């Protein structure tokens, strides 16, 4: 749970997880195994189509919430179930405690329910003198440890078998060994009597089916069947978001749930509860069944044009499985009660600003969660929007405001970058790196070597380059972004040389500025909008077929984020659309537009691996262009196991969370070195800064270049 008062404290809390070797290795193994199992589980399915169907079903839920609720309530009550509506967590807990008192229930068995975790139901029932026993094995373990779940589907993933052995030894008073099968038997024996003795069973629900008043439960252990059948009272607590029209819709969700959650082809049990049936333990009378439907901020979410998509969440937990931050720190630090990407958003709506304010900043914007989401939720955008809302509520920090003002003033921003080359002189090494970190940086930032600002920015070099393209076959505008303009102009120069050989006419509009992604990452949306406008206007008068950027993050931001940022400016819509259509990344342009072939290069067989930047492979969906070009240009391509994993840069993220950035980078560099490649190519200057700086710091011989530099070097001379 999030108790940190400020970001500094939160970073310290994260450090505890980074220092937990077992946690790190468990999450690491799971991340690698999950990737493979999921791919196998979906190998014969059109995942895109299934995800779109789920999104459509659940969009229907948020749009027709009242209608579905009324239909569900009427059908369930006709089946003999009592349906309750709870506005918030306190009311839900009170309703359930009252049911327990009225039915003289002294002991409760529970199956896994994230909604009950959300309301902290156990605490309330226990405070009323009612014994509550969790019966899902993972939940049982964490209940004994007085902890919350660290994953929505695998609540005890953070614990080792030795820890469980010690725990169960304490509970049973016997010294056990750490054989997993034996430990499971211990839990089964302890729980069996609890099921028999329980007065009341509490479950959640994966679905609330409006047409029949049925609830559906998806489980692996079968405990939910005992919870719903043995006790004489059954209470199911579920959020409004669980409402769906029909059982056919539920089947579609079931077909994706476990595959996306853990890579299992199917789940062990799907349990349907329709009405109050006979109960032998109640002397053959009908069981008393109550459904408690919880709002707790969901209605507000459903009515929000942007956040209503959260209703598409089927709680598969996959957004945590692929998140590089979760992989480092686990759910207790990357979440409050709900964890992972969706947890960052739900915490704000269900538990308030105070619990969400630090947490929501711990997103590197890698888009892995969006890519894997079973409901096609644009999680990174929602996380950034939550951050902006929190800043708008509580005030923007002064450094954010100053940087926003600076970025909006292009001339001042560029003057400062130019003057940096003089300011850095005392700290500059001859190898292009900063010698001593300035005092504003601290030790924790010292995990990578930092490059110096270039002697001359690309914007000053470009007019001096003689581009003799007489009969251009294509005209392009170059968008450099700040890093390539002021730190790595040689990458832009390589592009100009390569393009000139292939009859590409180029222009470089001088009024272009930073793409604005750094300020968007900081939650400064107003500044991000202003900078977007500046850049669109800078290219407006250029007669070009394409706008090329060598930075995948810039390309993805220009293409996909600008329309969102400027959506309220209706007079500008056509310009934004026209601009976005022209934007293309370097590798796609060379591969798909120029279509360069082997005869265009002199290859040297250099063993080369590739880092696929998050905003290239996921942001732009470009998965193979650069890799194909490596082979076309005559290099030997070796695929890294973690080719598409984030490098830990994330712009301002690496400055804000250096400890996490360092560990994500370490994993990446280990993977790169494991390939045995002499050379690493990538398509993003930010990634180059991170990877090159990290490799330099560890004394590696692997050379890091932009793909365009490797292509330009091997490109044959023009005839
Ligand atoms: S964008 Fe990346 S870092 Fe952020 S929550 Fe999603 S997976 Fe995690
Ligand atoms: S947000 Fe998407 S990936 Fe995450 S739990 Fe929900 S459905 Fe699964």
Descriptive account of the structure:
With 719 residues, the chain is α/β, with parallel strands linked by helices. It folds into three domains: 7-11 and 317-394, no CATH class; 45-299, NagB/RpiA/CoA transferase-like (Rossmann fold, 3-Layer(aba) Sandwich); 403-719, no CATH class. The strands form four sheets. Strands 1-10-7-4-2-3 form a six-stranded parallel sheet, with helices on both faces. Strand 17 (679-682), helix 34 and strand 18 (703-706) form a beta-alpha-beta unit. Helix 29 (586-593) crosses helix 31. The chain is elongated, with a radius of gyration of 28 Å. The termini are far apart. 50% of the residues are buried. Bound molecules: iron/sulfur cluster (2 copies). Residues 313-319, 341-342, 372-375, 377, 379 line the site of one iron/sulfur cluster (SF4).
Question: Ranges with pLDDT <50 over ≥5 residues?
Answer: none
Q: What is the general shape?
A: elongated
Report the end-to-end length measured between terminal Cα atoms.
66 Å
By DSSP (H or I, 4+ residues per run), the number of helices equals 35
Q: Give the integer mean of the pLDDT values.
A: 94
Give the spatial strand order of the biggest sheet.
1-10-7-4-2-3
Count of discrete structural domains? 3
Range of helix content: 40-55%
Largest sheet descriptor: 6 strands, parallel
Oligomer: single chain
How much β-strand is present in the residues? Answer: 5-15%
Give a count of the beta strands, DSSP E runs of length 2 or more. Answer: 18
Structural class: alpha/beta
Compose a concise summary of this entry.
This protein is of the alpha/beta class. The chain has 3 domains: 7-11 and 317-394, no CATH class; 45-299, NagB/RpiA/CoA transferase-like (Rossmann fold, 3-Layer(aba) Sandwich), CATH 3.40.50.10420; 403-719, no CATH class. The protein is built from 35 helices and 18 strands.
